[in-house]
Amino acid sequence: MVTNGKDVSSIMLGIETSCDETAAALVRRKEDGSGEILSSVVRSQLDLHAAYGGVVPEIAARAHVELLDPAISQALSEAGLGFEAIDAVAATGGPGLVGGLIVGLTMGKAIALGLGVPFIAINHLEAHALTAGLTDHLGFPYLLLLVSGGHTQSLIVKDVGSYERLGTTLDDALGEAFDKAAKLLGLGYPGGPEVEARALLGRPIIALPRPMHGRKEPHFSLAGLKTALRHEALARAPLSEQDISDLCASFQEAVADIVADRTSRAFELYEERLGKGAQRTLVVAGGVAANQRLKAALEAVARKHGFRLVVPPPELCTDNAAMIAWAGAMRLSRGLIDDLAAPVRARWPLDPDAPPAPGAGVKA
Length: 364
Ligand code: KG4
Ligand code: ZN
Known about the structure:
Nucleotidyltransferase, domain 5, five-stranded mixed beta sheet, globular, disordered N terminus, binds 5'-O-[(R)-(carboxyoxy)(hydroxy)phosphoryl]adenosine, binds zinc ion
């Protein structure tokens, strides 16, 4: 808890329900500002959505209702704690699917009200952005590349609540592009791991475009790559197993090149904004960060620009509630709490002042 601006240890309950993971966690923030995960429970709804090739909002919301209660009980029992140990409650307020957000936010408010402790509504993207403070005790500022099924952004993380967006996607998110590529090639959902596994069996011999290559602003565009992949697949139909693997390898190679090029531009902008003396660390978060080929490409480009690469462990890169609890603990330590009227927000940009990317759709 924060008392008279002085940090003392606090235990935060975190709740995450913005997409298709129902998650609850308990995290302790210690006096020295470091964090400790006491428990982190993630109940994936993947099997409920797999048949549809994507997340179905109504199914997700109903599943959160069923799964959240047991997830919170499990988080408490794994931490060996009762409700009375909780100093504050943090729940995702957005961005995400409204039905699920209402379930988690309402539960968080009810627990906070019942216990008489502070409540904090968390921006899911801020939670991804602050995770490196929990896993690596990383201080500000740093460059963040957030690459998931719903988001593709590069941001300067200056402080809690202070972000400058450098790049965003004009169309599909990176994970979404992997998912669509997989669907097109008849592979399962989620597509990223499937494409990566098949790429290991293939050769990157099929020419595919690198949209936005060399552009000044570090934005992404993936729609053209997806279309080119479709054309190449149609041209080879019926596809042999080797064709599918070669297409996966070629697609993944194109994505790795795109990410390296766009991130290299983000490094330059980071230095332009903050000067040469600023900490040079790139943090990669989001499900796509699990891709080994992408990680290797990012490692190479980071080295070239004198940046250190930090990739939190996969279970903390993908959606989880420990990151929500940690963001809550960071905000609480700054006295940033919310009242029970905090709304759900389907859209909630980290940098509301960022100029719209030219031609960008709603995901920017
Ligand atoms: O962060 P995440 O678990 O959920 C959200 O989207 O919020 O990210 C899931 C996305 C999916 O699109 C999935 O296909 C992609 O991350 N992904 C990968 C890999 N593992 C997961 N993409 C490429 N390579 C992977 N190994
Ligand atoms: Zn996420």
